[in-house]
């Protein structure tokens, strides 16, 4: 095996790299890609990290040699709000979890849930009616989180967690910062040190656990139903044949709740923002919606005819991938792109850096849904990976795409959203790609005159 080192900032930049990772991880990752290309080597404090952004090299990690990659140290932060669930475990434990959940994401099953999604979107449209009449500005991010919380919990858990949004939204806002390990002092201190951060962490964890315990208790009382919670209560441990304990079930529910609604809420916020910035795209989308739907509520059967809608969603996920980076640790030494990657070190895969790579995408900073029209769409794998890839690709991607298309269609049919004058939307890399100071928008009825 080669002992060649991948290019990266030299020793003099080490401290700089760590402090930049703490303050602006998105900026650091974009810079590494621009300066060093498809694979870059960087020390982040004590951790040796290789950032991999070229399609073939990403394929190596996710698809060709996945046995050499496990979740590792950066995913440990996710345990804080997800426990040991499908996202953070490996091997047999992961497989058992994925097997229980997978059937709930089959195409036919999800399509039959489309009316639940459109009902939730209708609630959002009604919520915006007052502000639209008064021409008010609304920060859409929390409202879109509220929507996706409703969709996720009604489709998978058989309950409506929007009723508890006042408790849950602050938890989520805290969690997306706490779960990403950036080496901040507050994260490194032992649990027993009574800092304010630790008190807030304990409080938010307790709220999330309590809500999920209530979901489990409701399901037990309701008996067997056709949802994920009931399937988890029925499931048996593959080795012992015993039912899962409540802690294991709770971890799975927290994982789906966090991984499922927050990502989709962000994707919706970014898509509505992109439409507000590109009037030509919005006009073409509205024309397609008028032609195919003539004002009625979309169904899952309509979606194949709404080709431009899908292009807009795909381009938004390229430009603003909600999971903008995800990590792996190497089990043994590996060779990636002709460079040595030592055992026990971290590999970061960044959909954001990959989607903005000027060697792979023409004018990557331009929002252009035409890239995804059937005639010009590239079939090259791993240049576009908003949902990851290989065996660990996103289990919920079909639900996310369904929700995105139905929501964007219904919002664009009814309202015109414009960014509040003077507000600049700046992406920031937390666990998800979030607009730093929200997305305040003026909501107005669509003008059909
Ligand atoms: C736009 C919305 C979404 C985006 C961008 C997204 C993105 C991703 C990505 C990139 C991964 C792979 C992470 C890795 O390989 O380390 C992933 C995994 C996962 N996602 Fe999503 N996701 C979305 C929606 C959802 C939804 C709706 C659910 C569930 C309802 C969900 C549940 C999960 C779970 C459980 C995993 C772990 C899968 C495994 O390790 O086997 N996601 N997601």
Could you characterize the architecture of this molecule?
It comes from Saccharopolyspora rosea. By secondary structure, this protein is an alpha+beta fold. The chain has one domain (11-445): Cytochrome P450 (Cytochrome p450), CATH 1.10.630. It has helices spanning 14-36, 55-64, 73-76, 79-82, 91-101, 107-112, 114-127, 129-134, 140-157, 165-178, 185-188, 196-222, 228-234, 246-277, 279-293, 307-319, 351-355, 397-414; strands at residues 39-44, 47-52, 69-70, 137-139, 326-330, 334-336, 339-341, 346-349, 415-419, 427-429, 433-435, 440-445. The strands form four sheets. The protein has a five-stranded mixed sheet with strand order 1-2-8-5-3. A hairpin with a 3-residue loop joins strand 10 and strand 11 (433-435). Helix 7 (114-127) packs antiparallel against helix 9 (140-157), helix 14 (246-277) packs across helix 16 and helix 15 (279-293) runs antiparallel to helix 16. The longest helix has 32 residues, at 246-277. The termini are far apart. The mean pLDDT is 93. The chain binds protoporphyrin IX containing FE. Residues 86-87, 98, 152, 255-256, 259-260, 263-264, 267, 322-323, 326, 386-388, 392, 394-396, 399-400 line the site of protoporphyrin IX containing FE (HEM).
